[in-house]
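Exercise (ungraded).
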Amino acid sequence: MGTKWEDFINNLKDSAGMLAKDELKTLIKTAKNDSEDFIRRQGEKMELYLIQLAEGKITKAQFEGYVLDIKDLTEMQALKMSVAAKARAQSLAKGVSDLVIDGLLTLI
Amino acid sequence: MEQYFFGRHLKRNRLFDKGTAACLLLILMYLSGCAHVLGAITYFDPTTYKNLTDLKPEVTALYDTFTGDTVDNGQISAICLKLAQMYEYEKGKGEKNKETYTQIRIIQTMFEKHVSDRLRDGKWSMTHANNQKETIAEAFDIAIKTEALKNK
C-alpha cells in the first residue's frame, strides 16, 4: 500500500497501457528528493495536485492546467539560471578588464 | 665573466617576464572575450524590479476575487495593459534582455490562461484559487529573482 497519490495512480484503469505508472511515480519521487529547491518544490506540487485530484477537489482540466504551469515555471527557472551564469561571466569580464588588464599588467 | 652571466641572466629574466606577461595578457583577453560573449546581458534595472514587485500583489489580489460571483473586468484589463507595457519595455532593451522579456511573456500567457479559466468555467473553489495564486506568485518571484541576479 503506497501513499494516497501513488494509490490513485495505481488504481487508474489503463487497459491500453497508455500510462507508464512506475516512471511517473519515480519522476515525482526523484523530483521531491532533488537537491535543487525549485525541482523539489515542483515534485511536491505534483504530489499535492494528484492528491487533490484523487479527492475530487480539482477537476481533470484544472490538473492539466497546473501541469502546464509547472512546465512554464520550469522554462522561467531555466532562463533565470542562464542569467545567473551570464551575470557571473560579466563580473569576470569586468574584473579582468578593470583589475588585471588596466591594473596589474600596467605595473608589471 | 660573472658580470656577463649576471647580465645575461637579467636579460633572460626580462625576456621571460615580457613573454609571460604577453601570454598572460592573451589568456586574459581571451577569457575576457569569452566572458563578454557569455555575459551578453543587461544590468540590473530598478524599474523592472519595481514593475514586477508592484504587479505581483495586484494579480494575487485579483485572483482572490475570482472565488466570488462577479468578475472585475476593469481590473483584468488594467493588469493586461500593465503586462503588455512591461513586455514592450523589456523587449525594447534588445536581445541582451531576452531572458527577462521571455519571462514576462510567460507570465502574460499564464495570466491570460488563468483569467480565461475563470471567465469560461465560473467562480473558483478555494483550492483552485490557492493553487493558481501560488503559481502566478511563483512566476513573478522567479522573474524578480532573475532581475536581482543581474550586476549593478
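Further reading is listed at the end of the chapter. For now, observe: The CA atoms of residues 6 and 25 of chain A lie 7 Å apart. The mean pLDDT of chain A is 89.
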